[in-house]
Amino acid sequence: MTLPERNTNLTKRVTRLGVVIFPGSNCDKDALDAIGRICGQDIKPIWHRDTNLDDMDAVILPGGFSYGDYLRAGAIARFAPVVEKLIAFADRGGLVIGICNGFQVLTETKLLPGALMRNEGLRFICREVFLRVERTDTPFTRNLQSGQVIKFPIAHNEGNFYLPSDELKKLEKNQQVLFRYCDAEGNVTPKANPNGSLNNIAGIVNIKGNVLGMMPHPERRCDPLLGEPDGVGIFESVIDSIR
Amino acid sequence: MTIHNPLRPATVEEAKAQAMNEEEFQRVAEILGRIPNVTELAIFASMWSEHASYKNSILELKTLPRSGGRLLVDAGEENAGMVDIGDGLAVVFKIESHNHPSAVEPFQGAATGVGGILRDVFTMGARPLVALNSLHFGNLDDPHNRFLLDGVVRGIAHYGNCFGVPTAAGEVIFDPAYTGNPLVNAMAVGILKVDKLMRARAEGIGNPVFYIGSRTGRDGMHGATFASEELSEDNEAKRPAVQVGDPFAEKLLLEATLELADTGAVVAIQDMGAAGLTCSSSEMAAAGGVGMDINLDLVPLREDEMEPWEIMLSESQERMLLVAKKGQEHKILEVLEKWELEAARIGEVTDSGRLRIYQKGFEVADVPAWDLALGGGAPQYKREYKRPVELDELEAFDPLSLPEPDDPGQSLLTLLASPDIASKEWIYEQYDQSVRTNTALEPGFGDAAVIRVEGTNKGLAVKTDGNARYVSLNPRRGAMLAVAESARNVACTGARPVAVTNCLNFGHPYKPEIYYFFHEAVAGMGEACRALDTPVTGGNVSFYNETHGQAVLPTPVIGMLGVMDDVSKNVGSFFTQSGDDVYLLGEILDYGLGGSSYLKVFHNKTAGKIPLVNFDNERRLIDLLVGLVEGGLINSAHDVSDGGLAVTLAECCISNKRTKSGVVIDYPIERSLKEHLFSESPGRVVVSVNRKDIDLFVKRAENHGVPYKKIGITGGDRYIWKGMFNLPIEKLADAYYNAISRLMNRE
After folding, report:
1. Is the interface score ipTM higher than 0.85?
2. Would you tell me how many other CB atoms lie within 10 Å of the CB of residue B161?
3. How far is CA B124 from CA B79, B92, B259, in A?
4. Given CA atoms B66, B69, B70, B72 in this order, what sign does their dihedral have?
5. How many CB atoms lie within 10 A of CB B747?
6. Could you give the C-alpha distances from B150 to A159, B580, B747, in angstroms and in order?
């Protein structure tokens, strides 16, 4: 039995990537596998008690239920030793990607604006959704096409993005929205919105453009076994940005 | 119940209150050579309860094929069955019921059912790869049944999603017989390196015994005995017998346990499930032929002043009992410290053969471990059974005496929207199906879920199948049909069926007419599993599924495991492209509609003769399917089952919601219209074949001696059956996908 091979079409680059593991993280292995095995990069786990991010170029906060999501999703992880360092890392311009629970943690730390409330239907939803790519001039989307429609699964109970209306206007004006829920043709419609998020928002960046939060799971669409590998485009963008 | 003196001799009345009869009480006294004290009685009553001892089922279960083939441990030897899949890897899997807790408190009942079965798997050192469930409820027009379904689904989702295991297959069935007593059977499948197996056998005199995980409280008191009685009006009062789950604690326990397996410092480990500390300590001691001394003063408690029997019987969740190698305790403690889990050294292994329990300087119990345990001195009863006379009358009913359907297209739409057949999307969308990035075939897309074995190209196909309606008419044939269908289901994805776990849900075992179904179903299952070379690795029996003296349908559930060498070749049940030829593999040997969905939906009847499985044909069909998928010669495969061929073809059109495909069927009637469209006669599979592969496909089918018949061509956006109906697939999809949510959302 041979292990699935690394993607040899990608030349090996020296990048320094890490995935934070909180107690209760459960998509950490998925991100490590997608970026390590599929995208062929060196990537290492970062234990939540570790506080040294000095040798990192990009850090991923994975999905899951950090600290059981007790109190509120992401609310306790915000106080983990590694998160304090992560804030400084982001301030220095380091790239940060929060996926699902990671996005929730980033809003709790205020690295990203807004809050992720319970889904409109008050149920956990796991399904593949279409996303429209809104910007391609970011380190996370540079290898994608503007207006391109990609597909990732969502799997969350609290993904209903909310922001007070004046702040939402600012967010839109600053073009901080990277991904919106849409239909197969790229139309942003209420029907395509799975969780009630304002303006169909699925993923945003901070003003500086180095911190991304998104509810859908790109790491679940990197291996062709699991579906069309649209997730590779996002991780490849990151890798190209820090090369 | 409050007992202030744990040493006070117990009475027969107290035994009866704990579901132990007078003879059993006498037997305990004989074993001890004295009247047991109240603590000892509680220990015996829980270990000799139906739930822990299998006393009324074990003799029947012993007739099942329980070893050989790829099995690495015989059934019942460890917490879950273990199957060799090559390359030093083994699959560990098991199914278990949590029916009574779910009837009383659906959310926590179902959640802790999932937690318990996951623990059974990872306590052996295996990482859970996928979870499944088989659920049975009363009809959804009753608001209480909607409440139960909603709560159970939320509970399964809450636990599995947070724990981080994909919930990717199963079944949900509705029948008035389950009103008040739903069935919630949870299955988990894990993977481990064979040399990392951790056993549940205490060894090494003087080795320390550690308690690991959450603290002990009063939740889940008497859960094992609660599960061993029928439900009654005072169910509400039994809520304290339902445990409360903490999936976050379980996730930490999982990671810690797998790291413990790497330390080499673990002698034995077992989770604390039913009957908690009592069961784990006595079973581990009995399995190793040793004794165990335990000091209850050292057990981490979350409530004050717990009585010894309360600590011994608590079913607080997310706890393990571990025997460490003396001198290597620090390795255990390091791992637990990393995962911030509590651990306490509460006792040690002795050569006494006895379970001795101490509290506040007193010996509060001293009982022989072997006499407590299943497979040891726990009672085993042969029960009487008697064939119910009404079965003859039911079997005599001839469905062909009923009129033909006026509008076959409308009949098809009605069947697609009937709750047993309709898509369970509303349910499985609440489960995380793709966490851990191994789910190659997600729910709804195929006849079984297909999961990659991490770090390899191998895949597992898993499915649960029960068919209680058939079993209620003819338990022997019905159980055979369930095994055959589950094997066919995994073979449709391209996997070879290799082993079975089962969950046997029945009524009161002391009623001979109930026990008849149990006895016959086990016999049929044994015959089927022998014929298909899929031994039974273990499972669970749940008796006493009754309310107001009325039993649920006899419901044996099969959990089938299949293995494929190259996971990337798996196929789904849906047509993938237009222009493919549609073939029907297999043939009808036993036409008919006895026990069918058609009869139930249109005539509200469960009656008639049910079909007989031909295992020679089934084996040939399975071999053919596995070869066809391996060779890339078919684009889809779907078993003909509930609703018959007409429903099966509709599902092929719409079971990929994104890429729906029409089909034109040209397959004239051979007998009656209703049989032709809706017979559930087994051993048939619909496949779609790329035109260029037809010659090879036909040759393979002929070589395997499997009948094949071209019945149509894929394409277009309508499901057309010449001479029968012509329906837009969007209309089929609407009926199929929205039925459950419409039923759940009505007021």
Report:
1. yes
2. 25
3. 7, 8, 12
4. positive
5. 3
6. 21, 40, 14
Q: Which residue of B has its CA nearest to A155?
A: B432
What are the phi and psi torsion angles at A32 (to 5°)?
A: -60, -40
Q: Which domains does chain A have, with CATH numbers?
A: 17-242 (3.40.50.880)
CB-based contact A127 B432, cutoff 8 Å: no
A1 to chain B: which residues are within 8 Å by CB? 86-87, 456-458
Single-letter amino acid, residue B557: V
Q: What is the pLDDT of residues B485-544, one digit of tens each?
A: 999 999 999 999 999 999 999 999 999 999 999 999 999 999 999 999 999 999 999 999
Whether A100 sits among the annotated catalytic residues: the reply is yes
Q: C-alpha distances in angstroms, B703 versus B206, B620, B624, B696?
A: 62, 10, 9, 10
- pLDDT tens string B676-709: 999 999 999 999 999 999 999 999 999 999 999 9
Residue in chain B nearest A227 by alpha carbon: B440
**Among A26, A30, A123, beta carbon nearest to B251:** A26
Report yes or no: A66 and A22 within 8 Å, Cβ to Cβ.
Answer: yes
Q: What would the pLDDT profile of B197-238 be if each residue is shown by its tens digit? A: 999 999 999 999 999 999 999 877 766 666 667 766 566 566
Quote the CA–CA distance of B501 and B568 in Å, as a whole number: 26
Nearest-Cα residue of chain A relative to residue B444:
A127
Structure tokens at B467: 């068919």
Tokens at B476, concatenated: 């022997």
A33 lies within 8 A of chain B by CB: yes
- The shortest C-alpha distance from B535 to chain A (Å) reads 25
Query: What per-residue confidence (pLDDT) applies to B589?
Result: 78
**One-letter amino acid for residue B508 of the chain:** H
Q: What are phi and psi of B211, to 5 degrees?
A: -100, 130
Cα B530 to Cα A71, B462, B476, B525, B526: the distances in Å are 52, 19, 14, 8, 6
Q: How confident is the model at residue A15 (pLDDT cuts 50, 70, 90)?
A: low
The per-residue pLDDT for A3 is 38
Closest CA to B216 of B303, B321, B120: B303
**Residue A207 corresponds to which tokens in the numbers above?**
């003003």
Retrieve residue B8's tokens: 């006070």
B122-171 pLDDT tens trace: 999 999 999 999 999 999 999 999 999 999 999 999 999 999 999 999 99
d(CA B81, CA B121) in angstroms, rounded, equals 9
In the DSSP assignment, the letter for residue B569 is G
Residue B404, class by beta-carbon neighbours within 10 Å (0-12 exposed, 13-18 middle, 19+ buried)? exposed
Angstrom CA distances, B698 to A20, B617, B690, B709, stand at 53, 17, 12, 10
- Alpha-carbon distance B287 to B202, whole Å? 7
pTM comes to 0.95
